[in-house]
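Narrative of accomplishments. A recurring question from our advisory board has been how the design workflow behaves on a single, concrete structure rather than in aggregate. To address it, we present the structure tokens for one chain from the evaluation set, followed by the sequence designed for it. No filtering or post-editing was applied between the two.
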């Protein structure tokens, strides 16, 4: 059974198509990341998955059941964080969490609250009023509320916004553990692409409401562009020598030469040897790889062209 499955899911607001015939699938234990420019449709998708808005056409299934507003069974197994972290400002962190535990009618609420405070490193702030929390700790409290009932599915809109670098690492570790050890499925949206590349098991690039590309980050290496950057003291001579070996050097943006020939990328040492033999040894030789950000911008740019 899939944790999330959408079939031609579409949401229109008058002339705006916020989500357009979207077909996505996330398996249990996936950390599925949605990335896209502002207005790409990520939040609209998340709201449909949570039953907060109804699709114009198409369907969404979550944990095996079609999403419908007010479905308590699905709500009991799902945790979510959307919009700005909302907590009762005058209540303490612990009181806020007790309230959620009571609303969800959890057995042994005090133990659950202690456990989630500990998991999210909120112990030093447990007796602080929510309004006095820093943005990062407010975000931790919001995550604690999403996690308190041990959900099978976590839906998180921008969960690492506002966290400091240490906080980002903590949340990454926590989400990875939940997915790996408990089989929790995590669907998240984020603009922090470097972080997404580390955390996610699948990445969906959403553009103008459509699924532009789906990536397995472990195989990103097979999909991104690579190039060999060579610097020498005499680029004209070096270019001539490399062309003599059947290669196609291009001038680099600043200086030096750029090669994209497969042979050059696989065997940069042959390039070094050829340049030494031609009397212009490399002062720099580096295989550069597009990162997720470059890859994302290139795909989005191509889609708009
Ligand atoms: N209630 C609404 N009424 C009209 N248009 C809307 C509504 N909600 C969203 N939209 C439009 O739908 C499109 C998708 O918006 P959405 O908020 O889902 O994007 P997003 O990918 O979450 O963006 P961001 O990264 O900025 O949060 C945008 O063009 C937005 O203006």
């Amino acid at each position: 059974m899939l944790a999330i499955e959408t079939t031609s899911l579409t949401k229109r607001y008058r002339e705006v198509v916020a989500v357009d015939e979207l077909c996505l699938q996330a398996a249990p234990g996936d950390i599925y990341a949605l990335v896209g420019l502002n207005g790409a449709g990520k939040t609209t998708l998340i709201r449909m998955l949570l039953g907060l808005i109804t699709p114009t056409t198409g369907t969404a299934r979550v944990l095996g059941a079609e999403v419908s507003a007010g479905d308590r069974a699905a709500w009991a197994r799902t945790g979510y964080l959307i919009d700005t972290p909302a907590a009762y400002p005058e209540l303490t962190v612990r009181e806020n969490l007790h309230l959620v535990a009571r609303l969800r009618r959890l057995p042994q609420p005090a133990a659950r609250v202690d456990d989630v405070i500990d998991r999210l490193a909120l112990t030093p702030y447990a007796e602080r009023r929510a309004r006095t929390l820093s943005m990062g700790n407010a975000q931790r409290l919001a995550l604690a509320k999403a996690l308190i009932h041990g959900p099978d599915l976590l839906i998180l809109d921008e969960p690492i916004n506002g966290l400091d670098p240490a906080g980002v690492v903590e949340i990454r570790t926590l989400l990875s553990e939940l997915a790996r050890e408990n089989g929790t499925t995590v669907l998240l949206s984020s603009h922090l692409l470097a972080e997404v590349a580390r955390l996610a098991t699948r990445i969906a690039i959403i553009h103008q409401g459509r699924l532009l590309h789906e990536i397995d980050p472990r195989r990103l290496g097979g999909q991104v562009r690579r190039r060999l950057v060579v610097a020498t003291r005499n680029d004209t001579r070096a270019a001539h020598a490399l062309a003599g070996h059947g290669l196609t050097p291009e001038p680099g943006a600043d200086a030096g030469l750029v090669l994209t020939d497969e042979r050059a990328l696989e065997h940069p040492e042959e390039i070094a040897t050829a340049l030494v033999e031609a009397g212009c040894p490399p002062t720099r030789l580096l295989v550069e790889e597009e990162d997720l950000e470059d890859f994302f911008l290139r795909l989005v740019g191509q889609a708009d062209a």
